[in-house]
Write a structure and sequence with these properties.
It contains six helices and seven strands. By secondary structure, it is of the alpha+beta class. The chain has two domains: 128 residues, no CATH class; 41 residues, no CATH class. It has a five-stranded mixed beta sheet. The chain is elongated, with a radius of gyration of 26 Å.
Amino acid sequence: MKRLKEFIIPFIGLKLGKHLFEYKIGKAFFEHFEYEEFNDTEVLVSVVLEKKTTLLELHFNISGHVNINCDLTNEPYNQEIHNEFDLVVKFGNEYNDENIDILIIPHGEYEISIQQYVYELIVLAVPPKRIHPGVKDGTLNSDILKRLEELSPIDKENKKENKEIDPRWDSLKKLLTDK
């Protein structure tokens, strides 16, 4: 995958201390990853890089919203997202990203790419079950919701019919209680 230039931080020229990097993430960012789950995105990413003599500490903070489709009604809505992540970058003999929050890069490196971390933070901030807020509070008026209610196995009409049980089932219920 091609690295995006704006997400490459050249840390070699930075002074010791904290440095702030901010990014506005739009739909084009996810097209680069060929991720098509989001209709639109408006996410602000702030990365605080603290340069120390032997390592780098990065603190990622994302906030904003992504426009996604509801799992029940397929209606688009804006899902608010927030996420934070801390990454420690150490220097070693070879590249190693086996640990989740520790990245080891070779001694000669002078820059770090954070695009994969930003991508994963945003995607993982979206809840696995996406339900439109209008479904939860009952304000969404959708043909799909009406159809789901019609096809629901438990209707108000069916509840009345279930009260009148066929008498043949009563003898089977006695078998369960006669133990």
